[in-house]
Design goal:
This protein is 65% helix and 0% strand. It is mainly alpha-helical and 512 residues long. The chain has 4 domains: 93 residues, no CATH class; 239 residues, no CATH class; 82 residues, no CATH class; 64 residues, no CATH class. Helix 18 packs across helix 19. The chain starts with a helix and ends in a 9-residue tail after the last helix.
């Protein structure tokens, strides 16, 4: 049961409505609450197995996507174009991070030295067979990561190898200094060798998979090497980070406010090149904290984290499960320097499990003993039921407001007419309803004042062309010409193509 709850968030294929991350997050929250309620049965064994099972299944899905066979499991596997691979995580770097977590978990299981380690983790198979199956799993993860073409995944697998070598080297140093036999030395040596073997398989796969893809499908993909050569133009991270640094310089002390980066990016006219998309995250956790909360708070948060890591001294860890936890935190941390995995449920759960592995003291197993029905466990179950009921209500509320984003024929029968008024009373998704109202209501002299205020407010929620257009049109009707000109300049700078289509609708068909 616990293993299924830990695996499912990584494999969930369902997402719909105006917020693609809403359903996955609600399902993750539900799984996490059940794990919390049943945590008396949670063991290191369950965590390790869940991670590598999720990674292996996702790698298999990714290879189906890569070679164009995802349609065979339509409804259970997300669609991807031939040559793309991201499993059900919908983003290549997130999938690559999962393969890194799976690699760490497999290494932890295959190379343990103590039969009692990891809560007696044992696959109950002959030692050679266990290694054959395990190495096959490592190869599958290497193929999956290579298929993703993720540069973050490339860095992470180097990081895993470096960590394994570091722990091996530290163990050898301590053994030499103590002049004693280290019974766990073989474990660390095998970990390092397996990590290096995995890295070798991955590097070979980054070259071999595109060749195999072209030979079997006729589709040419440059893969990882092509992504290293691609400068990404106005959508690249270097330009994104330069824009974020400029925004930080404008408000260095208190920042622009939490959740205000997309608004700040829209209203700012940069002296140089501009990142050509809506920018709602800095794609670097320290930079994101600095731009939204200010440099002092960002430095305090990063400094506190660095102090905690230094105090814990993960490079001196000798316990396999704690090394696994630090390894997973390291790959998620590396990912957080180029994107924002901690905004997504599966990675939040993974970090929570890492903290549990670091603080957890293994206890004697108890299955259906009297302790199972203790008052404390009953209270946990009751709290989980209440929270899951709350999540179910939020999910129902999200389903309701999603109706307005569908064509009338696709809506539930009760919401096919007067949909907007029926969903106005939402508690959790007011912005989504107001956005739908704004973008579907023509601006007239009678409603200009209302739509103008609504557009000003929604500009902080989603500063996209449809919102800006309504803001400018209503400002013109209200004779607020300076404001209209202010936003017109920013509309032209941020969305030149959409601005041209809006300004010259008769010529929009000729635009690329």
């Amino acid at each position: 049961m616990l293993g299924v709850l830990l695996v499912f968030p990584w494999l969930n294929p369902w997402s719909s409505g105006p917020m693609p991350a809403a359903i996955p997050w609600l399902l993750c929250a539900g799984c996490a609450s059940l794990v919390w309620a049943l945590r008396f049965g949670l063991t290191q064994r369950v965590v390790v197995v869940a991670w590598w099972v999720a990674a292996l299944l996702s790698a298999a899905i990714a290879l189906l996507q890569y070679f164009g066979y995802a349609h065979l499991l339509s409804g259970w596997v997300n669609h991807a174009d031939i040559g793309d691979a991201y499993a059900n995580l919908r983003q290549r770097n997130q999938f690559a991070t999962l393969t890194s977590i799976g690699l760490l978990a497999l290494i932890c299981q295959l190379t343990r030295d103590d039969p009692n380690d990891l809560d007696d983790l044992d696959v109950r198979s002959p030692w050679p067979l266990r290694w054959v199956l395990g190495l096959g799993g490592v190869l599958l993860l290497a193929l999956g990561n290579a298929a993703s073409g993720s540069r973050t995944g490339w860095l992470q697998w180097w990081l895993v190898a470096i960590l394994a070598l570091l722990w091996w080297w530290r163990a050898e140093q301590e053994k030499s200094a103590a002049g004693a036999i280290d019974l766990s030395g073989a474990h660390r040596r095998r970990s390092a060798l397996l990590a290096l073997a995995a890295l070798g398989c991955y590097l070979a796969a980054t070259w071999g998979l595109p060749v195999l893809l072209e030979a079997t499908t006729g589709f040419r993909s440059d893969g990882l090497l092509g992504r290293f050569r691609d400068d990404e133009g106005c959508g690249g991270r270097r330009l994104l980070w330069s824009n974020v640094l400029y925004l930080i310089a404008q408000r260095p002390w208190l920042g622009w406010g939490w959740g205000e980066l997309d608004y700040a990016h829209f209203v700012t006219l940069y002296p140089g090149a501009r990142f050509c998309d809506i920018l709602d995250n800095a794609h670097n956790l320290p930079l994101h904290l600095a731009v939204e909360l200010g440099i002092p708070l960002a430095l305090a948060a990063c400094g506190a984290l660095a102090w905690l890591v230094w105090r814990a001294r993960p490079w001196r860890e000798r316990d396999a499960s704690r090394q696994l936890a630090w390894g997973v935190l390291a790959v998620v941390g590396l990912h957080s320097l180029v994107e924002y995995p901690l905004w997504y449920g599966p990675f939040q759960i993974a970090v929570g499990l890492c903290l549990w592995l670091l603080w957890h003291k293994p206890l004697q197993r108890q299955y259906f003993s009297d302790a199972f029905w203790s008052p404390a466990h009953a209270r946990q179950a009751q709290a989980a039921i209440v929270f899951i009921s709350f999540l179910a209500y939020v999910g129902w509320d999200y389903w309701r407001i999603s109706q307005i984003y569908q064509s009338p024929s696709m809506r539930a029968e009760a919401y096919r007419s007067d949909t907007l008024n029926k969903v106005r009373n939402t508690w959790f998704f007011q912005n989504q309803v107001r956005f739908a109202e704004l973008t579907t209501t023509p601006v007239t002299s009678g409603n200009a004042q209302y739509l103008h205020a609504l557009a000003q407010d929604l500009l902080h929620f989603s500063p996209e062309p449809r919102v800006v257009e309504k803001l400018i049109e209503s400002a013109v009707l209200l004779k607020q010409d300076e404001e209209a000109l202010f936003f017109l300049q920013r509309f032209r700078a941020a969305f030149p193509q959409q601005h041209a289509q809006w300004a010259n609708p008769a010529n929009s068909a000729a635009l690329p």
